[in-house]
Structures
1.
Amino acid sequence: MKIINKILSTIVGITMLANSLLVSGSDIVLQNAYASGSYENIIAEVLQIDSYISSGLYLEAIELCNKTLSTRNISDSDKAILTADKEKAENAYNAYLASLNTVSYANIANEVNRINSYISRGLYLEAISLCNSTLSNYTLSPDDINLLNNLKNSSESRYNAYLSSSKTSKGNSSSSSQNVSYTVYRTKTGSKYHSNGCRYLSRSKIAISKSDAIAIGLTPCSVCKP
């Protein structure tokens, strides 16, 4: 009986040793495969990264790329794959941020309409001012920037033409009143110029020389007769 027990004990010991060797051998094989950097070792991560990018989860994709690059022992070819995916995610994220900051034409349509209205009424300085403020206050597309710059250039050209016309008329006129320039006042949207204290200046009051007022097409108020 003792002999049988001893034999059984020996068999159990050999079996356990064999299992241990098999497990250790399996671990070594897995470790070698892991160290080899074969693409199969990161395919799950790559698929997840691509899924993040296609879903617009760019920051998650970048984070997983960084994590895989820093914690996995992978081949140079796999590093190139992950680096390319990371760059793709970063570019997509930057494009997304840019789209948030860019204002579409629909958002500046009111400004453009006001600028055209100012130009049609001869209020060129107001048109130029609104062009400048719209250009500085919004992040615009190249097409909208060109549109506003064209409107600004048109306003400046027309304003300069008025100034030139005014100087010519003054040089040819014998009337002394045409040569006298003093401060008058205009409103923000009106087409007249006024004397200080005119009732039409209750809402807005902008100082301007009489010669400049005439140059941009303003006419004297019939009430205060400046």
Note: The two ends are 134 Å apart (CA to CA).
2.
Amino acid sequence: MSVCSGERKKKLPESAELLQIALGDLFKKIGEGGIAVATDKTAIDVVGNTEKGIGAAGIKRGGKPRIAAHATAKGRAKRRIVDIFVFFKIRHKIFPLVIILYQPMRKRKKECRIPSDKVSETLDKSPFFDIIKGKNSPRICAERKHMKKATFGPGGNGDWFYSEGKKSTLQAPGWLKEKGLDAFEYEAGNGIAGSEATLRAIGEKAREHGILMSLHTPYFISLSGVDPEKRLKSIEYIQKSLWAAELLGADTIVIHSGSAAKISREEAMTLSKDTLEKVAEAVGETSIRLGIETMGKVNQLGTLAEVIEQCKVAPIYAPVVDFGHLNARNIGGLFPDVDSYRRVFDEIGTTLGDSFARDLHCHFSKIEYTGAGEKKHLTFADESFGPAFEPLAEAIVREGVAPRIICESAGTQAEDALFMKDAYLHALGMSGN
């Protein structure tokens, strides 16, 4: 282990062994807390000098810390400053933690302590929070640019699309790219009406313009219907939706989770899981995610816990979180702050696995509600019902996840999707990039 001052190398004074012990103890405690040290290629060789007199350390292959330090100007300072960049993975989150150590220059034995308050502070803050430089340092921003980002788009075509003279969904992918959006959800709530040729053409346009596609299945699908014939018919509707999704190049279809209006929730869950088992048997292996949506009315299945339980039926299922629905069925107030949104990702990551939380398909809109839950979708002009998007944008950044968020505002879905993207980029510290 050495210290570089100009082109000269000097032995790191008396602290190397103590530093190794301190880091080893830190890694042990972190391991006991269920946090793993990342050693993949994104966490290797992240070592550099971003400011004179400050050194850095990264992670060697195999997970052992590489410690390097740089003497301050001319090596005459009273202390050395060492930052240690350690990459952690906490469930679905991967981010660097910066630990700052101050090492005395004079030759006397002194234990090298890691400032635990700084460790806790950093773990609690957003991914890529850099204690020494601040979250917008060039190094941190460079790391962010290599991370998968959240994507945004509308569900169906809204007023803005038609006000500019557009008439066909064939024009939507190019229009969305022009507006700076990333995704589009094809709305088939009233049934799959498009021909094979039309659906294929839309899919080709989406690929041409780099627009991510999903499809909302017909509303009349009934996973928990008491009539066996209706539930069997629902399997056919889901299969047809998968056929349309493949033509569109969609990677996700969205299915309503079922009703519990005339039967108990327990019976509704049993029936819905039986239907989902039959769907899985009929569909077999597929690269398209079958998303089960959280719902907004109290008499519907579709709490987050219920959707997670339904998704456990087979690996082809994934949750689709509609934050407006969850807020409406709670009669408001479910998402007052950043942490309330973060708990959604944490619950999904803990129960279903990291990838489900990291690549979550979401819906977002402000929704009017009554005592029975959802009444109607609103626009972002609403200031009464909510929920607010800005805390979710910050939660996404802090969690280090990359959801696709489809806006279902009433007519302003494209404008509001663009607002969400701008808010997310602002939270990410990359607005304008």
Note: The longest strand covers residues 79-90.
3.
Amino acid sequence: MKKLLSICMTAITALVLVLVLTACGGTKTGYYKITSATAMGMEVTGEQLSSLGFDGYLKLNDGGKGELTFAGETQELTWDDKTLTADGDSIEYTLENDTITIDKDGTKLVFTYDADYKPAK
């Protein structure tokens, strides 16, 4: 009986660890500031965009809701671990090392997680 109980406890512990590690491995909520944009073979840094008045960020909130703000325009969106959706249009993204990359039709946007970022009001 003790051996069966030990096996059950080990299985439960392993299941809990898998669930915790899976939950922690997802996308972080918070602000992702634009760090580069590439289109038509030209790359522009986040600093260059900012100096031209084209600040941008993704804000991902708990519950799969968020917003994309670029050049003063804000668009509400929903998100999951692979897709951002706004106004019924979805686009896939990748997440690696706190960096979200959106790459579609020759345009690439890169956003980097910034725990200290606060957008200008």
Note: The helical segments are 2-24, 46-51.
4.
Amino acid sequence: MAKSKSSDRSKKSSSGANAARLKPADFIKQKARTLPIGDCYLGSDPDNPGRTTAVVTRIRPSGNIAACYFMIDKNCFGVTDAFCRVNMTPDNWKDELEESTSLYHLKPASYAEIHNLIFGAIEFAEEAGLEPASTFDIAEYMLDDDSDESIPLMTFDFGRNGKHYVEISQYTPEAMGVVEGLKEKLGDKFEFKITDPKAPWSIRNKPTQPVFPIEPFSYDYPRYPAEPTVKHPFIAETFLDPANYFSIPADTTANILALPPDEAAADIAAVMLYATGRTYRQIADGSDDSSPNSAIMHSLIHLTAIKSDKALDALTDLAHQSFDFIEAHLGDYATELVPEALMTASGDNIGSITRIIDSPGLDAFNRFYAFKALALKYKHQPELRDKIKEALRAHLERLAADLPATRACSAEYAGLIMGLFDDMQLSELLPEIKTVYDTGFVDTSICGDYTTIAANMTKPVNDGELTTSSIEEYYSQLKRSQDIAESR
């Protein structure tokens, strides 16, 4: 039986409707590779030459455009994202291309160039155990199969100096976890740089560097008090009051300093332990919703002026807290307040500081703060210099033995402390310092190489990091912080 024309038209119409009903993802997977390749474009990122955007278009039978954008990190991660537009009119595509050209700095490119760039970046990322973004599962069908031998083979340089390279723009545990994963996969065959302005001062804008082992943080937390047990309640009430976030009334400070030093220090220690117990768990899991206060900040500021060892246990506990804890309570003030409070509270007791320095599981910065307390003692307590010098010599000898295994130390910590030897002008310890450098486990991006340290020993004495501040000066700094915060 012959087919009627109307029957034919009906079938064609039905077939067209089925094609139109394809979801965009299904259309790309089933149809894209059957469409001719149209114009292609390759972009650039002026702020990061390792990043680029590639655009591949396909021409539909109607003349409409299917376009796919591929976000590519040539330094390490390969294809980091992809998205497609499957049915744009030529006019719509013209408008979008104009906008995309401005946004991604696009220039015309050959399909072969883009194909080789994308699959080369993916292969390079796979060496580091990294897979393309999940969006590539669909977007790859906008590309010809990589086994197609008709595509000319082209090569590109990936990474930096032949190594996988990562820039960390947000200094977070997650970002550093990525670095750790890369270290596990690649060893020292990759480099990274931290550009986050909020990162701790000593590692901002580091030059490219090898990744050293990180000492795992650990601390067996004590049982903290449910309430601060104090002899003078006004101390706890004032320090814990959120209204006193940036300052303490001057008459309150005068009253505290008028107390017997041991009584004032004991009460301040009680406030510190109470404030720690209220917040350390929540800071660790990111759920801290307690009322904001600066109790630990106020405690340290006042302890810099109170010569008593009654707060030494609380300060030792503080030195064992996590990086996030110190950052949450003290921010950039930690680098001044923690060492100075430790110096004052420990008096002539050098061992109380060296025990902190030698404790396993400390955050590198907290270990550095304890070391800086010794350096401050060397500067401001000259009667202890001979004892401190020998303690430092013994510490350098331990570092030379323990750095390769990251036992109660790390390359980051070693890098942090080296500049303080220049500030102390301890040229007689240069042989021991060189032995530490010779381990290869000193992060020279923090402190410079051994020749830099040795050369600085011959320069005029510079207090550098070894200055101290008064209570009034600390609160003046906080007042400036308050003014800035309120002006935003």
Note: The first helix runs from residue 5 to 20.
